[in-house]
Structure to design on (434 residues):
């Protein structure tokens, strides 16, 4: 090895010492100050943090977190906020606290939110008498009167424990360590904002998913994601229903069509049956005028009765219920009664079908008379001669006369003797049938 490559010895200069640490540019720490530092060590005694001073700061276990003395969640290299408790501790280290820094920063954050009116989000950690406790980096209280339970399961406070909820700060008292918040106000504000956005984007004819929030006698209110639309009972089914609970239930997710949007009034009208197959489009393939049908009475109104025929409801006017004059529909029909009637009119474009009990009875009477005459002619018998036969033919070809009202109070109607035509000398030998 050449001499020049050997390590120098003897009177050669000693190895160069590191430059002295320059403390002139280091920040001056003061007690009660909050600074940021980098975690350089984590052990069972605490956490060592480099805060840029001439010595490192130390966080004892009891000063790590308000929830306990665990070091979980802290790793070497993390940047954390710390509160300077002592500039020179007993061992020469700077004594720091993470939990006090977190608490002070939480107070500042809450104070700013209170002044600016911004919405905070916090986890519900407990249900106590009178309300809920939330974690804001410190303890916050939500009175029961300020809790919105419209979307809570079973509408119970316990259903919100463990959930992050929006909150508005309504009172701050730092001296007493008290923070009062409102969940209801925050939800109302969020809904108002969403309402404006959704109203601006909704268009008639669109199809949306929603959740049924409330049922009433006249319909259901469906949450479309921040705004409720009304689903009227008349728009739930192609057939008559007595109550919305026959079709939907609270909490059910449904697909609905937007029928009308009134942006000025903030109202939305929805439809459910419009996304279902329309049975009236094919009603002409199953029913025709003059056809006898069977159904069940589902509703009675002053002017008549509605009869369910599979997927559609037909209507029997009160004038088509009997030959006699009917004063009340309930005198002839009742809900749940099975009836047979004659189809007299179909207007599919209007979703309307008219039935008649009176005409069906008349048609069947005519058929019965025709069958009787035919059977007598086949047997070569005549009832009371040519004149009686003519009367029977008139019954067949002439509309029937209205049936007189039924006698009341059990009275027996007076017997009427039908007029007999004058007979000529040639009286027929055949008599009327037994």
């Amino acid at each position: 090895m050449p001499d020049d490559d050997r390590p120098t010895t003897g009177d050669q200069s000693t190895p160069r010492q590191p430059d002295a640490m320059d403390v002139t540019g280091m920040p001056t720490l003061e007690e009660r100050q909050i600074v940021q530092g980098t975690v350089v060590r984590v052990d069972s005694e605490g956490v060592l943090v480099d805060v840029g001073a001439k010595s490192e700061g130390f966080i004892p276990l009891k000063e790590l977190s308000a929830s306990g003395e665990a070091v979980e969640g802290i790793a070497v290299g993390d940047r954390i906020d710390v509160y300077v408790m002592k500039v020179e501790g007993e061992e020469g280290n700077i004594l720091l606290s993470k939990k006090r820094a977190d608490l002070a920063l939480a107070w500042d954050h809450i104070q700013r939110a209170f002044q600016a009116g911004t919405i905070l989000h916090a986890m519900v950690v407990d249900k106590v008498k009178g309300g809920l406790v939330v974690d804001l980096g410190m303890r916050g209280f939500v009175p029961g009167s300020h809790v919105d339970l419209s979307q809570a399961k079973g509408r119970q406070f316990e259903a919100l424990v463990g959930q992050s909820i929006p909150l508005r700060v309504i009172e701050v008292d730092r001296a007493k360590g008290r923070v009062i918040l409102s969940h209801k106000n925050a939800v109302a504000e969020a809904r108002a904002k969403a309402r404006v956005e959704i109203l601006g984007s909704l268009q008639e004819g669109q199809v949306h998913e929603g959740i049924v929030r409330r049922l009433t006698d006249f319909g259901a209110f469906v949450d479309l994601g921040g705004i409720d639309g009304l689903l009227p009972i008349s728009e739930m089914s192609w057939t008559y229903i007595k109550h919305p609970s026959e079709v939907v239930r609270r909490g059910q997710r449904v697909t609905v069509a937007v029928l009308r949007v009134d942006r000025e009034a903030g109202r939305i009208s929805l439809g459910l049956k419009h996304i279902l197959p329309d049975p009236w489009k094919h009603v002409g393939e199953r029913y025709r005028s003059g056809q006898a049908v069977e159904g069940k009475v589902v509703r009675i109104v002053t002017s008549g009765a509605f009869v369910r025929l599979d997927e559609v409801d037909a209507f029997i006017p009160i004038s088509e219920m009997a030959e006699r004059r009917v004063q009340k529909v309930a005198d002839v029909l009742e809900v749940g009664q099975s009836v047979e009637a004659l189809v007299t009119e179909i207007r599919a474009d209007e979703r309307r079908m008219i039935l008649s009990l009176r005409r069906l009875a008349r048609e069947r009477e005519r058929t019965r008379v025709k069958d009787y005459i035919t059977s007598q002619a086949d047997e070569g018998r005549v009832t009371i001669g040519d004149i009686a036969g003519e009367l029977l033919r008139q019954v067949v070809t002439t509309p029937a006369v209205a049936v007189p009202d039924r006698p009341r109070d059990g009275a027996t109607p007076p017997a009427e003797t039908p007029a007999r035509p004058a007979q000529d000398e040639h009286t027929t030998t055949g008599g009327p049938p037994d």
About this structure: The chain is about 20% helix and 30% strand. The first strand starts at residue 34 and ends at 42. Residues 357-378 form the longest helix (22 residues). The CA atoms of residues 58 and 104 lie 19 Å apart.
